[in-house]
Q: What sequence folds into this?
């Protein structure tokens, strides 16, 4: 970054709170700096459209992958039925017009715990979790 493009933020007037607040909505933060002299430098920044068709298609592919891996590794899983129930719950919630973030988060968390003992399933669930964050 060249010297002329640098900018030093002005000190806030009368307060010591340099926090960030957000109410509702969705936020995806890569680099963030808060407070006097704070600086965040980022290269390419990508903004994703909310719930775009490409992201939803990727989530669908990953759900099918997790489903297939659950079947392939069924004998290795401590509980063979519960992960399928969570995946079905997740799919149904994501198919809703406006999925409830708490329901999605809990289903993904439970699915991750069930998948943990089997590396390929756990990796696919982790990728699904990242993809769901993009929609």
A:
């Amino acid at each position: 970054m060249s010297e002329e493009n640098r900018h030093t933020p002005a000190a806030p007037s009368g307060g010591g709170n340099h926090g960030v607040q957000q109410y509702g909505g969705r936020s995806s933060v890569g680099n963030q700096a808060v407070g006097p002299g704070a600086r965040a430098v980022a290269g390419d920044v990508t903004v994703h459209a909310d719930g775009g068709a490409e992201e939803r298609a990727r989530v669908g592919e990953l759900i099918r992958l997790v489903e297939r891996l659950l079947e392939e590794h069924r004998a290795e899983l401590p509980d063979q039925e519960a992960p399928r129930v969570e995946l079905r719950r997740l799919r149904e919630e994501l198919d809703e017009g406006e999925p409830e973030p708490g329901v999605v988060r809990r289903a993904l968390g439970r699915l991750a715990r069930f998948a943990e003992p089997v590396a390929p399933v756990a990796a696919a669930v982790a990728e699904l979790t990242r993809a769901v964050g993009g929609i």
User: Anything to note?
Assistant: Residues 53-72 form the longest helix (20 residues).
